[in-house]
């Protein structure tokens, strides 16, 4: 009987991990597919012009999110009877940040653009608010249906009504985001408690470490794109944003690999931690070269971009470190040493900004931007391993 229960528990856990992993991969794939749809049916210049809007919205969404997923999952686990209260109060607490950025967009961009970007941010706000509920309630199938439906609507609308114009692309994409956001909100409408709409502003203090980590991780992976976009070359910005998204996606595969082992890591099993380190290193050595070959084919045959062998060599050293230090981040969390992670990631983000900026200033182009990021990644890896050495 006990063996049957253990097998059932294992099967359920595998289903949970697989469902969530598939959902995350699907969302990432759709995100990477959008620029290809736009470029194929419009132009690189249109997408390159859209990238600054995308970068602004991504950063704004990170700030509006404020680490709410990790915070809510912790609250849900501790007080499962008050899920609706925590969800509703968190939704209201972050609303002022959304309003602030919605107003800011109308000053930073033309008002006609600002209105649609505000809707875009509102959609992201609703999506991010329900992320913890999706995981806690295991609503992966429903999430996948929403993602498929919304993406299909976006593609059909863009293909049928495309005007080869930046403003129309913004309308389509913002509508796509608000459609997803409203769908997720309706999915979990039963958890929205109108009687508990008093904002809990202590959330901002408690979740601040999660917020800092998410911002640093975001900047570490996107600062080179921001710097390149600042130079104003729309074609180069379009190409590099797509390449960067593909590279970051490959980096994220490391997290999917060690996710099944996270529970054991938190139980302080050193043997499991070491086995996971070895598994990640071997997986990286296999997956990264294969992924880079696929990216090469995409760049050549779809983007018409023939990048040098040096570029892809640098790309390897940009991606591979994440397969080596990802487990160290979880290990430090287990030891309640989040500050160490913050310091190391802050150093990496700063180094990335300085180095990528210098290489771009000296006109090394996309290769220079990636080189700065790769050196920063190697520095981060070195610091995590150095910390591990001194802990021993």
Radius of gyration from the CA trace?
Answer: 21 Å
Q: Tally the helices.
A: 17
| Content-based structural category | mainly alpha
Query: Could you estimate the helical fraction of the residues in percent?
Result: over 70%
Morphology call = globular
Q: From N to C, what is the helix and strand string?
A: HHHHHHHHHHHHHHHHH
What proportion strand? Answer: under 5%
Arithmetic mean pLDDT: 89
Strand tally, please?
Answer: 0
Number of discrete domains: 2
For this structure, the quaternary state is single chain
User: Which stretches are low in confidence, meaning pLDDT under 50 for 5 or more residues running?
Assistant: none
Keywords: Membrane, Transmembrane, Transmembrane helix
Organism: Flavobacterium noncentrifugens
Protein name: Membrane protein involved in the export of O-antigen and teichoic acid
Transmembrane segments: 45-64, 97-121, 142-161, 167-189, 201-220, 240-259, 279-304, 310-333, 340-362, 368-390
Q: Strands, helices and their partners?
A:
Blueprint: H1 2-41, H2 44-65, H3 68-78, H4 83-93, H5 95-108, H6 111-136, H7 140-161, H8 166-187, H9 202-206, H10 208-230, H11 234-258, H12 262-266, H13 270-301, H14 309-319, H15 321-334, H16 338-361, H17 365-391
Helix pairs in contact: 1-2, 1-7, 1-11, 2-5, 2-6, 2-10, 2-11, 3-4, 3-6, 5-6, 6-8, 7-8, 10-11, 10-16, 10-17, 11-13, 11-15, 13-14, 13-15, 14-17, 15-17, 16-17
Organism: Flavobacterium noncentrifugens
Keywords: Membrane, Transmembrane, Transmembrane helix
Transmembrane segments: 45-64, 97-121, 142-161, 167-189, 201-220, 240-259, 279-304, 310-333, 340-362, 368-390
């Amino acid at each position: 009987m006990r063996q049957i229960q253990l097998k059932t528990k294992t099967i359920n856990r595998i289903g949970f991990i697989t469902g969530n992993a598939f959902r995350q991969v699907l969302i990432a794939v759709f995100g990477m597919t959008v620029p290809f749809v736009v470029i194929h049916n419009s132009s690189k210049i249109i997408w390159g012009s859209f990238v600054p809007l995308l970068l602004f919205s991504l950063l704004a969404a990170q700030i509006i999110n404020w680490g709410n997923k990790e915070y809510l999952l912790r609250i849900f686990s501790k007080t499962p009877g008050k899920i609706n209260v925590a969800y509703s109060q968190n939704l209201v607490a972050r609303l002022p940040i959304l309003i602030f950025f919605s107003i800011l967009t109308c000053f930073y961009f033309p008002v006609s653009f600002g209105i649609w970007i505000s809707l875009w941010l509102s959609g992201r706000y609703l999506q991010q608010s329900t992320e913890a509920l999706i995981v806690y309630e295991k609503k992966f199938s429903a999430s996948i249906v929403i993602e498929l439906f919304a993406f299909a609507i976006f593609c059909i609308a863009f293909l049928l009504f495309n005007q080869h114009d930046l403003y129309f692309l913004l309308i389509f994409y913002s509508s796509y985001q608000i459609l997803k956001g409203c769908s997720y909100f309706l999915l979990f409408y039963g958890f929205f408690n109108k009687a508990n709409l008093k904002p809990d502003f202590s959330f901002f203090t408690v979740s601040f470490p999660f917020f800092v980590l998410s911002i640093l991780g975001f900047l570490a992976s996107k600062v080179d794109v921001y710097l390149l976009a600042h130079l104003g070359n729309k074609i180069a910005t379009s190409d590099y944003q797509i390449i960067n998204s593909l590279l970051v996606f490959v980096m994220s595969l490391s997290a999917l690999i060690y996710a099944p082992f996270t529970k054991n890591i938190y139980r302080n099993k050193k043997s499991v931690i070491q086995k996971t380190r070895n598994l990640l290193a071997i997986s990286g050595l296999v997956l990264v070269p294969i992924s880079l070959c696929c990216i090469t084919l995409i760049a050549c045959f779809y983007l018409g971009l023939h990048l040098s062998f040096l570029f892809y060599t640098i790309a390897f050293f940009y991606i591979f470190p994440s397969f080596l230090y990802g487990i160290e981040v979880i290990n430090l969390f287990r030891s309640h040493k989040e500050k160490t992670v913050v310091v190391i990631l802050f150093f990496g983000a700063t180094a990335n900004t300085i180095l990528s900026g210098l290489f771009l200033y000296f006109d090394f182009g996309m290769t220079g931007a990636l080189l700065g990021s790769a050196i920063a990644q190697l520095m981060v890896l070195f610091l995590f391993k150095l910390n591990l050495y001194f802990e021993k």
